[in-house]
């Protein structure tokens, strides 16, 4: 069970978006299956579970390793457009959103996502929680997306906090590796909550 209140020593709470704050993975699974199918890649559930938490670029490159950069960009855009057309169907993960609501105004909070800014902001707005966060860092804001630590490092720097005093909330192995490599000692796997 995730404790809703941050401890007195906590300087910031850092939340992944997809699969952590917002139940986006089902829509992504459907959309990417269709998009990849049009490009000759049959996405399995096992493959999606392995690659689902990575940045979009890494995700598409893993599915289409022979694709040139223009095709990677095109396929990425197709996947995001499909997702955005369905964003109104999203639901929040209330057990995680409860943590954000309980700490709003008490401790700085950021969304730290491997997704593109347009999709992350659309997801947060769709479930009515964008206002809870002081900062949103996405794959668009850093040189390398998850599992690289860049997004977490940027959030920590922008908030001006000590990574050792931060708590991260994640749902994927790549996201947890990203937070861990940024020096965050407490990482909640929200799937276990």
**Can you tell me the CATH class of the largest domain?**
Alpha Beta
Please bin the fraction of helical residues: 40-55%
- Low-confidence stretches are none
Strand content: 5-15%
Report on this model:
- The chain is α/β, with parallel strands linked by helices and 193 residues long.
- The mean pLDDT is 93.
- The relative contact order is 0.21.
- It folds into 2 domains: 116 residues, Rossmann fold; 64 residues.
- Helix 1 crosses helix 4 and helix 3 packs across helix 4.
- It contains 8 helices and 5 strands.
- It has a 5-stranded parallel β-sheet, sandwiched between helices.
In a few lines, what is going on in this structure?
The protein is α/β, with parallel strands linked by helices. It contains 8 helices and 5 strands, in the order βαααααβαβαβαβ.
């Amino acid at each position: 069970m995730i404790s809703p209140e941050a401890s007195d020593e906590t300087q910031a709470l850092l939340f992944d978006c997809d699969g952590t704050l917002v139940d986006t993975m089902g829509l992504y699974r459907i959309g990417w299956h269709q998009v990849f199918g049009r490009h000759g890649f049959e996405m399995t559930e096992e493959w999606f579970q392995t690659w689902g938490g990575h940045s979009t670029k890494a995700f598409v490159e893993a599915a289409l390793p022979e694709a040139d950069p223009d095709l990677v960009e095109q396929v990425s855009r197709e996947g995001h457009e499909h997702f955005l057309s369905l964003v109104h169907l999203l639901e929040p993960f209330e057990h995680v959103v409860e943590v954000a609501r309980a700490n709003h105004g008490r401790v700085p909070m950021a969304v730290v996502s491997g997704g593109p800014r347009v999709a992350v902001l659309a997801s947060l707005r769709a479930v009515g929680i964008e206002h809870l966060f002081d900062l949103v860092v996405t794959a668009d804001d850093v040189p390398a997306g998850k599992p690289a630590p860049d997004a977490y490092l940027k959030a920590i720097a922008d908030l001006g906090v000590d990574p050792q005093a931060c708590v991260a909330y994640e749902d994927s192995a790549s996201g947890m590796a990203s937070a861990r490599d940024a020096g965050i000692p407490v990482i909640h796997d929200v799937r276990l909550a």
